[in-house]
Design goal:
Number of domains: 2
Order of helices and strands: EEHEHEHEEEHEHHEEHHEHHEHH
Shape: globular
Oligomer: single chain
Strand order of the largest sheet: 1-3-2-4-5-11-12
CATH topology of the largest domain: Rossmann fold
Radius of gyration: 19 Å
Low-confidence stretches: 114-118, 134-159, 214-228
Length: 341
């Protein structure tokens, strides 16, 4: 499936080509302010970056195509391979690096085996990758399992409750227009702390899509095979989150293969970045109580000789690339410099 690359920064005689990979539930637009800050920080360090981004399937302009959500590790890695292969005018003599957030960070490390990969990444900056060893949270025995239908023509499946999934399922899906969507997002805890210019970039860069009323009904998400690209939302027409919360919720039930299958043999140099107040890196080690620092140390140790250091953005949570774009960009630019040494 072809990827559509979005140019976020052009550079004359670039030091590196950088591919950005967004987190689950968002789109390339959410990372645009971070990308601008990254280029500025890199330039202060004497680096010139050519930056491009893409949307994963089920997200942004590609929200019409939704593969099996729980199998995100496979299709997200394939999407990275496709994006690398689609960068046809890249100078092969210039190192290609990836910068990814959450699911996007994991996908960068999982990529490289697909036929469209073209050229392997020279290194990756992983902002809170979903590592494991068992990221899918265990069911809560005190609560009844939730049952809902997803996927056209698939039977009803019983899915154990999961805090991340449940919070996503509670999110409003459709809106009467962009104004209602923007007001909802501004008041929602998930987007708390996002600067106004980041919210605008999210809306303008694939966060909302036109709600045509076709496809999924209540409790359902269309299977892959729908048109890959969907029209953006207009100001006055019905719209929805481009990444449907019903489908997104099941992404958080997928197991990350990084811990057991990839990191022990990872040869791509990787630098880690985490948010000082984030709980996500520690969740993969539940029920063992593990701090952010310990989770990052374990991940780096698992990567062995491929690890290129780590950094923490103080006061930031898991969505640090959106809530703290400048600070996260500073850490990422320093990591890119290490990867290019």
């Amino acid at each position: 499936m072809a990827s559509h690359l979005v140019v976020l920064n052009r550079a004359s005689k670039p030091t590196a080509s950088v591919l950005l990979a967004h987190a689950a539930g968002f789109s390339h637009g959410a990372l645009a302010p971070f990308a601008a800050a990254l280029c500025a920080s890199a330039e202060r360090r004497g680096m010139r970056l050519e930056v491009r981004a893409f949307d994963f399937r089920g997200h942004g302009t590609r929200s019409g195509s939704r593969p099996a959500a729980e199998d995100w590790a496979r299709w997200a890695a394939d999407d990275v391979d496709d994006a690398i292969g689609a960068w046809a005018d890249r100078d092969a003599a210039v190192p290609m690096l990836g910068v990814g957030h959450s699911m996007g960070a994991s996908a960068l490390l999982l990529a490289g085996d697909g036929p469209g990969a073209g050229a392997a990444l020279s290194g990756a900056v992983a902002i809170e990758p979903i590592v494991g060893p068992a990221y899918a949270l265990p069911p809560d025995p005190t609560r009844e399992a939730g049952t809902r239908r997803y996927g056209q023509g698939l039977p009803t499946r019983t899915i154990p409750p999961n805090p991340l999934s449940e919070a996503t399922l509670a999110r409003q899906r459709t809106f009467s227009g962009a104004a209602e969507a923007e007001a909802y997002v501004a008041a929602h805890p998930l987007y708390r702390g996002w600067p106004d210019h980041v919210l605008r970039a999210f809306f303008e860069g694939g966060g909302l899509a036109a709600d045509t009323g076709a496809g999924a009904g209540p409790g359902q998400v269309p299977a892959d095979g729908a048109p890959a690209f969907v029209p953006p939302a207009s100001r006055d027409s019905a719209c929805r989150f481009s990444c449907d919360p019903l489908w997104e919720a099941d992404i958080y039930r997928g197991i990350s293969p990084l811990w057991n299958d990839v990191l022990p043999r990872e040869s791509t140099p990787v630098a880690l970045i985490g948010g000082g107040k984030s709980r996500i890196p520690s969740m993969g080690f539940q029920p063992e109580p593990v701090s952010l620092k310990q989770a990052m140390e374990r991940t780096a140790h698992r990567a062995g000789a491929a690890a290129r250091g780590s950094a923490v953005v103080p006061g930031a949570g898991h969505l640090l690339a959106m809530t703290h774009p400048e600070e996260t960009a500073e850490a990422a630019a320093a990591a890119l410099a290490r990867l290019l040494e």
